[in-house]
Amino acid sequence: MTPDIDQKRIVIKIGSSSLTSMNGEVSRRKLEKIVEEVVRLKDNGHEVLLVSSGAVAAGYRRLGFLTRPDSLPEKQASASVGQGLLIETYSDIFMSHGYVASQILITRSDFSDELRYNNARNTINVLLERGIVPIVNENDTISMDFLKFGDNDTLSAKVAGLVQADQLIILSDIEGLYDADPRKDENATLIREVNEITPAIEAAAGDPGSANGTGGMKSKIDAIKISMASGIPSFLGNATTPNIIFDAAHKEAKGSYFEPKSDIQNLNQKKQWIAFNSGPEGKVTVNHTIREAIISDKINLAPTDLQHIEGRFEKDAVVTIIDVDGEVIGLGVVNYSSEALSKIINKPEWALEDNQLPAIENKHLVCHLDTEVPVNQLITT
C-alpha cells in the first residue's frame, strides 16, 4: 500500500464502552475492529498511539462482582486482573497483523515530575519510531483518587501534547458534540466544526452517560481544551461507526472536529508541561503595574515585581502568579527558593546584586493562552 503523503502522529482514545461487551468483559470483536482500523493507518505510514480504557471493566467479573465495583480497593483489584486481559488481547490481535504492541502504565505523578515526563516522552518516541503501537492506560492499580487524571480523556490530551501529536481522536458511544443531549432531545444537532471552546460549547457538554465509563462529554471538552492549547486538532466520534478511525484521520468521518485558531500561539513542550502537568507548589503576588506586561509575555518577572509569596518551594518549582486582587495571571518557573525570594522581594533595585537573576524568566511564563478564555480555565493539573 502506498503511504499517505501527509503522514501523521495520531493519538486515539478508546473508552470502556467501546471495547467491552454488555456483561462488562473485553469484547474481542470490538477490539478486532479497532485494531484493524489502526493497522490501516499504520500501513499508510502513520504513527499511532492508543490510550485505552477498560482495565476495570474487563476485570471486575473475573473477581466475582456482578456489577462494576464502587470502592477504590475493589476497582484497583479489578484493574489488576483486567489490564492483563486487555493488553494480552490487544497484543494478540496486533501480532496477527504483523505489528507489535507495547504497554505503558502511567500515573499523574509521572507527568508532574519533569524528569519522568521527559523520560516518558523519550521512551514513547523510540517505540513510535520503531513501528511499535504503544497502548497507554492510567495505572489504576496503584493510583490514588486524589492523584488520578480523573479519566482517560484528560490522559489522552496530555499524552498527545507529550508526544507532539498531529491529531487526537477521542472515540466513545456518541457521534460527537451536540447542541443538546441527543439521548433526551430528538432535535439535538451535531456540531461539526469548533474553533473555540465557548461557554455555549461547555453548556452543551453533558454528565457521564455510560455505565462502563468514567468520563462524559464534559471531560472530553476539558481534554480538548488542553489539546487545542497545544495546537493539536481533535476529533470526537462514535467508535461503532464503520471506518471511523481511518476516516477521522483523513477528515472524512461523521463527528465533531476541533481545530485550534491559527492566530493562537502554540505552547512549546516546556510550557505544556508547566501549564497542564506540573502542579504549582506555591503562589507569588505581583502588582497591577506589571500585570499587563506579564500577560503580553514581553518581560521577565523581576524580584522587585513581587509583592507577596505563599507556600514553600525550591528553585525551579512551578508557582501560580496572581495579582493583588487574587486573579490568576499564569504560571512560571522560579529561579529562587521561597526562602531566598523572601529575602529579596520588596527591596529597591539598588539593594540587589548586579547579577541578580529574574524571579521568573519570560521563556518559562505561561499566561493567558486565549484572551477569550481565562487562564485558570485552561490550566488544569
UniProtKB/TrEMBL annotation:
Role description: Catalyzes the transfer of a phosphate group to glutamate to form L-glutamate 5-phosphate.
EC number(s) recorded for this UniProt protein: 2.7.2.11
Binding, ATP: 13, 172-173, 214-220
Any single Pfam family the record assigns to this protein: PUA
InterPro entries, A to Z: AceGlu_kinase-like_sf, Asp/Glu/Uridylate_kinase, G5K_ProB, Glu/AcGlu_kinase, Glu_5kinase, Glu_5kinase/COase_Synthase, PUA, PUA-like_sf
Record bears the keyword Membrane: no
Top-tier EC class: transferase
Official protein name in the record: Glutamate 5-kinase
Compartments where located: Cytoplasm
Coarse class of the protein's main subcellular location: cytoplasm
Record's keyword terms, sorted: Amino-acid biosynthesis, ATP-binding, Cytoplasm, Kinase, Nucleotide-binding, Proline biosynthesis, Transferase
Catalytic activity, as annotated: L-glutamate + ATP = L-glutamyl 5-phosphate + ADP
The keyword Translocase is annotated on this UniProt entry: no
